[in-house]
Amino acid sequence: MSDSIEDNTALILDGKAVAKKTQSQLRSRVEGLQTKATRPPGLAVLMVGDNPASASYVRGKERACARVGIDSYGRHFPTETREEELLQAIDDLNQDDRVDGILVQLPLPPHIDPVAAINRIHPDKDVDGLHPVNLGRLVRGEPSLRSCTPLGVMRLLQDYDIEVKGKTAVVVGRSILVGKPIALMLLEADATVTMAHSRSPDLSAITRSADILVVAVGRPELITAEMVKPGAVIMDVGINRVTDYFGKSSLTGDVDFDAVKEVARYITPVPGGVGPMTVTMLLQNTVDSYSDRLGLEG
Ligand code: NAD
User: Number of structural domains, the chain?
Assistant: First the structure.
């Protein structure tokens, strides 16, 4: 009996392992490229304020940079920093030849407009893929720097040889950061794509149609087993901090992992699924930008 239960349990897409492998490949690529260049790749992560989650993400990004041989030029500004000061720092980094990628860590304090900051980054250094020029190129299907989390989702699918072409994909969530770009990337990979969001009536009926279900909402356990088509691929982008009955805090996704893994064919865990891929794609974008800017490959 227990064998058949195990057989029906979804295969867990191990983002941590794929990220580790991809980072090691990136490290070799950087070593190779450096023999043709006079400097290593450089990434500047700008953070304003003292949001502890942001500080931990920034530290994680800088550690990952060090692992693959990317120099960090990050700056940490106090909360009261004026928008003009941040924009000036971005201008300086746009001009700095050592820097191939610039990223503004969100959220920013309320007195700074995140759109103004993102739009100030030169599109060729926009390693988060959020500048209107890069988003426009994505819409047109042209090569561009692309948003890291959706890229990470696509890479995980690719790494596990999961066919996208001809499949029905549903994306829940329509943010500029995740939902919209992932929908465009799935469309580009020849999936038939539906987007659902907070105003979609009968979410279950939509999600049950999905061969590939991507969830980027930010609501723990929004997706239950009944909302999933048997055999579906579940990509859980959500990151939610929850506190249990005993006061213990942990991270969880938007999918009821324990129940859904009994129905799905593949599923990403949280943590250890899409998250590690996001950082890895940031490193990849930085190395791509470095290579393009210095004309090092092809
Ligand atoms: P967001 O708040 O900008 O967007 C959330 C989207 O969810 C909105 O489009 C909204 O319409 C939709 N939504 C809200 N309630 C809904 C409901 N009940 N039913 C259906 N749709 C609903 O969030 P975001 O920036 O796209 O992030 C989404 C989640 O992904 C968050 O948990 C965030 O922490 C996480 N995230 C993870 C990574 C990663 O690396 N894994 C990266 C970015 C974001």
Answer: 2
